[in-house]
Records
---
Amino acid sequence: MLLSLESSVTALDQFQESIDVIGNNIANVNTVGFKSSTSDFEDTFSQTVGSNATGPMQVGTGVATSSITTDFTEGSITGTGVPTDMAINDQTGGNTSFFLVKDPTTGTEYATRDGEFSVDKSGYLINSAGLRVQGYTDAGLTTLGDVQINNTGAPNGDTSPVANYTFSADGTVTVQLDDGTDFTRGQILLQSFAEPSQLTKVGDNLFSGLTAAGPLATPGVAGTEGLGTIVTGSLELSNVDLASQMTDLITVQRAYEANTKVVTTSDEILQDLINMKR
């Protein structure tokens, strides 16, 4: 087989994969907290056909995808006015920080940048999939678990119903009861990782593989130890640069078309060889 045919076929496969990555980025341009991906190529084994005074003479056999990496650059933060919506501002930290949420059924923990939270009928702070936000669950800020908003831990055992609640930039949850009593109910914590590129996207704006990514210590208070701060009443938008993605799409499309021409030319050469035999 002509090496040009083999090389161009591998290129078509990889460029199709690159188009898949770009297409997914564009599809998620309005997805809250979405992190775009980029694909990188590498050449494959080169066949040595001889040598001369300047060194070996080699012909490559194609291209392969070396990596598909996630870009964790922070997206724009926009206000929503919804008290339970939260975004992480990493500009004050240094590391990419994440909220932690846990599946109450399986106990599996995930990281997410999507802070579109709400409060369920039991008072738990949850994401759109019903996973519970993690942090300190007591007034003393010592016990880790599911963040819950109720009158538990109120001064003097006050059992008045919850009238209102607020979240601060460091994640502290302050509850106000019907009788006007205010107290700290808990605190939302953040987590950063040594190698966030090791996190795995699993849908629903969630990342798994937390252990492989190397958690930096235990979940910490926002605004400390390199963690970002929490911006309440706001959400982080997708970090997809639509103009850049469209430019990349055109570039890949042209490369794909060029390689289809190589396939066509190689096929014509093979056809000529067959006709010579006849």
Note: Residues 242-277 form the longest helix (36 residues).
---
Amino acid sequence: MFKKITSNQWLAIKLVMVATAFIPIIITFIQMIVTGEDSVIFLDGFNPTLALLIFVYYIFLIVLMLGMGLVWIIKQISSILKMKEEQRKTELLHLKGQVNPHFFFNMLNNLYGLVPIDPDKAQELILKLSDLMRYSIYEGMKEEVTLTDEVAYLKNYIELHKLRYHKKIDIEFEENVKENHRIMPLLFIILLENAFKHGVENLREHAFVRVKIISDKTRIFFTVENNFDTSIKQEETGLGLKNLKRTLELVYPKKHKLITLVNENVYKTELILGLL
């Protein structure tokens, strides 16, 4: 069994290799002293066999040093790529940690006021909120989940909102999932949350939210449409949307399209993911 070469041994080997690189200079210098000439031909007058061995040795040395240089370059590139991947993962974890926290805070505040008024409804809300939080914490930290799991999460979110509000909301949810792709979790919830936050919450009546999700072999289409109060200025650069855009850049670079359209009092967002 060969023992693993230590870093100190590698350093010694490298020093020897560097030192041998000066041998031609030393040989040439000795030749000049012996012959008394101002210039000489390297290895001139040496035994042909010895000269050939020295020549082959230096070819081997040059190839070896080039190889070591190539290995060093590959290691440096690999180290840079690994560092960038770690930075990407760290940033994604930070972005995931910021997904809809204020929704949970608002729901807890609503539950606090609802408990003495309607305990049964409060219990139902607590169970659904628990399911949402469980998904956000455990499934949300995974790199990928199935599209059907994500759709179930969105439906649970909508059901929770139906129980929360004391007004009629026209909600449509259309799904046509032909391919159960694996995707990054919590991508669509930000857009759905914005539809309730900027639309439903500010409208006393005739509020609507329309959701459509379609998947085929290569793409996923997700659309959210809601009406809003035109007297209230709409945020276009909210933290949630900024986080979503950055997440898409990190996870689906050049494989996504995020489109927002405003037509009178209707706000529409469409997210397209190209998965192949």
Note: Residues 246 and 267 are 21 Å apart (CA to CA).
---
Amino acid sequence: MSGRLVYFRKKMKFIIFTLLFAIILVPAPAFAIGPGEAAPPFSLQDLNGNAVSLKSLRGRVVCLTFWATWCPSCKEELPDLDVLQRKYAGNGFTVLSVCVESSNALVANFLRKNPVSFSVLLDKESVVSDAFRVSGLPASFLIGKDGMIRHTYSGYDKETFTVIERTIIEMLSK
């Protein structure tokens, strides 16, 4: 092999290694879509097979949350979101949850033990979670009456609940 070919191969190996390193080891941001952007439109089915679209909630403040039954923080978040749904639904607020599980039976069983008053939609193919570029659970988006994302939250604890509730009150007053 000529010297140029050896040099080219070494250079290409270095470039490929660098790209792989960047892709694998550099963490992605929790949200690549965020405040000030329009919420991607979608329609998903709930556990009863009814289609629910984000567009149908235009004019309401929406807390869109992505979760899974195996996620400990999600299990903590759902009852608190249910409190918010019950408290502010009459003021123009809706919680819309998207479960990323692939089994209706698994989600239905979970909800029998942990009932909530808001819609639970199934994203079996991860189409909606991909559109919102969700990279961790739970992930919540507060969407304004105009369909624009106003705030995002990754993870959950009682402090986050206080911030979310305060933000919802502020958004409802506008």
Note: The first helix runs from residue 3 to 25.
---
Amino acid sequence: MDEKLGTPYYIAPEVLAKNYGAKCDIWSCGVIAYITMSGIPPFNGASDQEIMKKVKAGKFSFSDPAWNNVSESAKDFITQLLTKDQDKRPSAEQALKHPWIQLATEQSQNKVSSEMAIGALTNLQNFNAKSKLKQATYAFIASQLLSK
């Protein structure tokens, strides 16, 4: 595949380089897992260009307080999925064999502190609100351009 397609928050670095395969979806799963657990994206910016620049660099952290109560195994899972080099990134089959996924599969209930859940939910709501505002702005601009 050699076309640059995707949403900036979820796009893999190799897609930006227009040289990608199935493992670009593993990257996107890592981004989704990161956002789901913390409520914030691993690669954030004020513009799509800034986000894509951070995606290309492939550097993220678990420094936000939302990560304080997340297990090291969960962080390792995300780190593996967000491995910049697609040749070193796990396949879907390998990702499903990760100890954190296996443990989650074995346990029917994960205990999460209410403080952690509320913090992640607040971050997720703020992230979603910003995205909706951006989408509304783009829709307005597009409608103005189309009407002219």
Note: Residues 114-147 form the longest helix (34 residues).
